[in-house]
Design a protein that fits this description.
mainly alpha, single chain
Length: 156
């Protein structure tokens, strides 16, 4: 696919893994034992739901490669979290910055669609379980703002 050819293999893998890194980062920002199932379910289901709404060729192409690798990609993020709990969030924010830089290689509408897609996944994960009676907790809001900034967009 022409869009994929714009990226190095490392950039492509970052774009594929970022939805799960963002999801995991939001999940650990405000851990909720009771809500872990809802957040995990959102992590697995929302990429496809939101991709369909995006209308983006790039997002569709990435999703097609992500879906058969779902378990592998989630396990990779879990391992990264276990290996470096203290630095996991910073690593995810840096991955967002790298994704934003790589996305400069595609048309602006495709880049924005991807950024909105991964941020939307993060928001859905945050909303999947209430913490302290609120849909999106303050720690989750902080992480979402950091992700938005790193991607170069503002959250709604």
């Amino acid at each position: 696919m022409a869009l994929k050819e714009n990226f190095s293999s490392d950039e492509w893998e970052n774009l594929i893994g970022l939805p799960y890194a963002i999801s995991m980062t939001i999940m650990v920002a405000a851990p909720n034992v009771m809500g872990v199932w809802g957040e995990t379910k959102a992590t697995m289901q929302e990429p496809a739901k939101l991709a369909a709404k995006s209308g983006s060729a790039l997002v569709g192409l990435l999703l097609a490669e992500m879906q058969p690798r779902l378990q592998e990609l989630m396990k990779k993020q879990q391992a990264a979290l276990k290996q470096n709990q203290a630095g996991y969030r910073a690593n995810t924010i840096e991955a967002c910055r790298r994704a934003a830089a790589a996305l400069s290689k595609v048309p602006p509408e495709e880049a924005l669609a991807y950024k909105n897609w991964v941020l939307g996944i993060g928001l859905k994960v945050a909303e999947a379980a209430k913490e302290h009676g609120v849909a999106v907790s303050d720690p989750e809001k902080v992480v979402i703002a950091e992700i938005s900034s790193a991607l170069g967009i503002t959250s709604s």
